[in-house]
């Protein structure tokens, strides 16, 4: 027997809410913990150029420097 009508549904909804909050928390922690492998220098350089943070001349100079290190 339940204490009041609908308490079973309320308990199920509460459990679903707790599970969703847990999944959200785990996802947020994984994103901030550095779960992904660090990007290499060339990838970072390509992204900076694509975003317009550096001009073509700077990009080519930095790319050449990176290739000389290999």
Give a brief outline of the structure:
By secondary structure, the protein is an all-alpha fold.
**Which bin fits the share of residues in helices?**
over 70%
First CA to last CA: what distance? Answer: 73 Å
Strand content: under 5%
Give the uncertain stretches in residue-range form.
Answer: none
Can you describe what's shown?
Helix 2 (41-51) packs antiparallel against helix 3 (56-69). This protein folds into 2 domains: 1-36; 37-70. The model has no long low-confidence stretch (mean pLDDT 85). It has helices at residues 7-32, 41-51, 56-69. With 70 residues, it is an all-alpha fold.
Q: Topology, please?
A:
Blueprint: H1 7-32, H2 41-51, H3 56-69
Which tags fit this structure?
70 residues; mainly alpha; 2 domains; 3 helices; 73% helix
């Amino acid at each position: 027997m339940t204490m009041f009508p609908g308490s079973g549904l309320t308990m199920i909804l509460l459990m679903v809410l707790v599970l969703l909050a847990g999944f959200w928390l785990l996802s947020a922690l994984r994103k901030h913990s550095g779960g992904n492998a660090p990007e290499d220098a060339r990838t970072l350089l390509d992204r900076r150029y694509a975003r317009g943070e550096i001009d073509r001349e700077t990009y080519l100079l930095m790319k050449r420097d990176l290739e000389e290190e290999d």
